[in-house]
Amino acid sequence: MLLTIRNRFLIALQYQDFRTLWTANLLAGASAWALIVARGWVVYEITDSSLWVGLVTFMAMIPRVFATPIIGFIADRFDRQTVLSWTYGLNLAHNIALAMMITMELAGPWTLVILALMNGTFRASQQITTQSLVPNLVPKEHLLNAVALNQATQQGSRLVGPAAIAPLLLVQGGVKCFDALCFDWSFLTGIESAFWLCSGFYLVGLIQTLRISTRSRGDVDQSKSFVQNMMAGFNYVYSTPIVLAMVLLAVFHCSLTMSYESLLPVLSRESLSGGSGGANMLMMSIGAGALVSSIALAGVLNSAIRGRLFLILGIASGISYVALGASSLAGLSMATAVILGVSTAGFMTVTHTIIQTIVPDGIRGRVSGVYNMHVGGSMAAANFLNGALSDWLNAPVVMAVTGIGFTLAIGLSVVHLPIRRIYFPKTAPEPVPA
Q1: Which side of the chain, N or C, has fewer Cβ within a 10 Å radius?
Q2: Residue 21: predicted pLDDT
Q3: 211 and 22 Cβ atoms separated by less than 8 Å
């Protein structure tokens, strides 16, 4: 049984460099999602406004619009392991600076906005470089498994990060005395400690990236200008129907059902009567479902089954998003959040797997940049809009409208030929030359 699980679901982890990168990605993702929860709650406490939470989340995501095409070019032009190590180092420096400001109570809303912009730039750079490097760490026959497991670190870290900081948010520190011996342990708990833990995650992640021995880079035409080489990614995406279809589906999905970060604080307070712990538990529930879904899909090798699951997961993500917004019971909300995590993570895992199996390695970094630009831009704008609308209306109404909208969009997508061929493929997609 264990041998079957290892050989079907976890086979890519037998390769040392991939295993090392996988660990680094999991820690970086844990830090990123814990930071979203902790930073969002700090902003909400300071301003008592979902609009500010939406703005900070927007600034953390908007770099994926203007920075990712450039980073994609860098990931193809230079050694990917070196670029990746730099992104980890810069994000570690950011996390330390943020933790110091929170600890010393120097972080106002505008400071958090600026730091979120920096964090988003470094995080986007790390994700694109990772996506470009993963196919070089395993044999081609195990690429699908490696891509799915890499997505599991991105999606499942929604559980790991918030779970790691949960005790710090729920337990209050203070001075404890044992006979004549007193110990002030407040520095070990509270929101400040959550930011320091995020820094620790990135420190270990940086050490892991430095241990990767594989060296690779893309195919950049030295006779062409920087702009011409960078635009090659756009040209490939826009001229390859199946890749363009996947990118557009991801844009709709991320903007309508995955832009919930700015809504979690207000949803926790108004619907669940909770604080930072309630928002954290919702994120953990989503992460638990995401982790299970991503690993399960790593073992799906049949393209026909994967295509049908893709359609089912898309419909489920819209319905569960509406249900989460409508729930006012803590237990039901947690269960619905798990389903939301299963469906949204599964949908994005299949999306990314199909794209990675089609795109040639020589242009992989630039295509990843274009993909992340579209996805990140839609999530940034949607989070900002959702935060503003929830102040005007309320979070459940916003989630109902967008969730229903995506469910209808998935239903209509079946009539589009390239997308229908993904849902109901006759053969697996073949690589398209650049």
Answers
A1: N
A2: 92
A3: no
What are the structure tokens assigned to 115, written together?
């730091």
Contact 330, 349 (CB under 8 A): no
Both tokens of 37, joined, read: 């929860």
Amino acid at site 204: V
Partner residues linked to 176 by β-bridges: 183
Measure the CA–CA gap between 159 and 19, rounded to whole angstroms. 20
The CATH superfamily of 6-218+229-423 is MFS general substrate transporter like domains (1.20.1250.20)
CA dihedral sign of residues 63, 69, 75, 78: negative
- Is the pLDDT confidence value at 430 over 60? no
173 pLDDT band (50/70/90 cuts)?
Answer: very low
**DSSP three-state, residue 178:** strand
CB 35 within 8 A of CB 195: yes
CA 171 to the chain's CA centroid: 27
Q: Angle 80-103/68-77 helices, nearest 10 degrees?
A: 140
Percent helix, strand, coil in the chain, to 5, is: 80, 0, 15
Report which of 190, 186, 195 is spatially closest to residue 167, judged by C-alpha positions: 190
The DSSP secondary-structure symbol of 141 reads G
Backbone angles phi, psi at 176, to 5 degrees: -115, 135
Asked if residue 249 lies in contact with residue 412, where contact means CB atoms within 8 angstroms, the answer is: no
DSSP annotation of 186 reads G
Number of CB atoms found within 10 A of residue 82's CB: 14
In eight-state DSSP terms, residue 142 is G
Q: Which residue has the tokens 């363009």?
A: 244
CB within 8 Å of 21: residues ≥ 6 apart: 130, 133, 134, 137, 150, 208, 209, 212
Burial class (CB in 10 A: 0-12, 13-18, 19+), 362: middle
Q: Which residues are CB-neighbours of 200 under 8 A, at least 6 positions away? A: none
